[in-house]
Please model this.
Amino acid sequence: MRGRGKDMNISELTPREFSEAWGVQGLVRLPAGWTLPAIPPEAARFLQEAGLPAHFVLAHPTLPSEISFTRISRGLTPLLAEPTVGPELPKAWSPYLVLGDEDFDNGGAWYCIHRDTGHVVRIDPEMDDSLSLVNTSIPRFAAAMLIATTWSAGIHASSSTPWHVVVSRLEASLRALDPSAFDAENSLWRTVVRGVADEESGAFRIAGVPRGRA
Model:
């Protein structure tokens, strides 16, 4: 990823700003001709003009996971069309289209967009609380990943600052961006903040490259 502009208003991140900050080579876009099923115009524009990271890594020391959004280069597909082992997926999930896949040591999850609201959610079918809100829009999701990776890359510069203060800055930035992202106990960003708070400085890294190269 390239250097971020310090004057960027990340709460109003545009596709161009995200592309320049993350680096075009690290992003995957929705095909320009893709039209169905429809999603909110703001989401479609952002996915077609900027896209999402090919890889987003949560490198927890013992529970690492890697999220890939490479599939959006082929368009968005209904969640209920995903192959599964076990019971059928709930019909209540029919409004969701798959953005990407998360892989971790003992399972996996989907990252999806609600076709009407544009909300980004994480769905882990193995959990009792399978569905949790990640962010309320695609631009806010992109901005949250940018905040997290920037924070992770810069924590060594704050080595003299107490760890709880460093972590509180990450949480404050993510909450200010999208307060609803912290409503659920099992939400992604609440879980990330808890994870980094429990580890030594720099032990839990957040990066935009595949795990083996993070």
In short: The CA atoms of residues 37 and 209 lie 30 Å apart. Helices lie at 15-22, 41-49, 138-154, 163-177, 188-198. The longest strand covers residues 96-104. The chain has a mean pLDDT of 87.
